[in-house]
């Protein structure tokens, strides 16, 4: 059975959400090189193909594997969320739990399911990072401080701000607060 290098490269490139130009830039080759390989008009040397695959990144072994890489995951069930914080301490005693939608490879947006238990606080030292973030309160209440502005948010309330401003999330209330948030570029 003949191995179609061009079709394989095109499928992997598209699966990774890359244009020919983007892959060429990442790999340090011309986009004409990528185009010729994908059209099977150029049979690349092992060294050339390896260089192109480093732009994905992918090993030669993975490339020549007969199995196609898994399709990009689009839908995530609650059990699929990636736990970013450890569950230290006793339940209901000030824990902050972050669960992320998907992994962040080749992503510029981070989506989180956040839970702030009673007494939870991101810390007296205000957070600051080069991002933008926003969210919607699903249940409970929390105190948001951005710069010198302090607000109490309740279910249905939302926020959006430049994360370079000093900010803090705190739950001084008796019930947990659940927020769905997004941050770009990712911070956590």
UniProtKB/TrEMBL annotation:
Residues 9-63 form the HTH cro/C1-type domain. Signal peptide: none annotated. GO terms for cellular component: cytosol. PROSITE patterns: HTH_CROC1. Keywords: DNA-binding. One of its GO terms (molecular function) is DNA-binding transcription factor activity. The keyword DNA-binding applies. This is Transcriptional regulator, XRE family with cupin sensor. It comes from Caenispirillum bisanense. The lineage of its organism: Bacteria, Pseudomonadati, Pseudomonadota, Alphaproteobacteria, Rhodospirillales.
């Amino acid at each position: 059975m003949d191995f179609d290098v061009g079709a394989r490269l095109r499928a992997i490139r598209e699966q990774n959400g890359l244009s020919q130009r983007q892959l060429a830039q990442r790999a340090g080759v011309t986009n004409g090189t990528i185009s010729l390989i994908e059209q099977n008009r150029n049979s690349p040397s092992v060294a050339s193909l390896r260089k192109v695959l480093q732009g994905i990144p992918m090993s030669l072994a993975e490339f020549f594997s007969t199995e196609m890489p898994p399709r990009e995951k689009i839908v995530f069930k609650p059990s699929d969320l990636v736990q970013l914080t450890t569950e230290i301490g006793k339940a209901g005693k000030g824990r902050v739990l972050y669960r992320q939608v998907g992994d962040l490879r080749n992503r510029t947006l981070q989506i989180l399911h956040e839970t702030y238990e009673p007494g939870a606080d991101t810390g007296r030292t205000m957070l600051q990072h080069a991002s933008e973030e926003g969210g919607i309160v699903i249940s409970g209440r929390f105190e948001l401080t951005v710069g010198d502005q302090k607000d109490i948010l309740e279910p249905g309330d939302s926020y959006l701000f430049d994360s370079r401003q000093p900010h803090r999330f705190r739950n001084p209330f008796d019930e947990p607060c659940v927020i769905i948030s997004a941050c770009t570029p990712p911070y956590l």
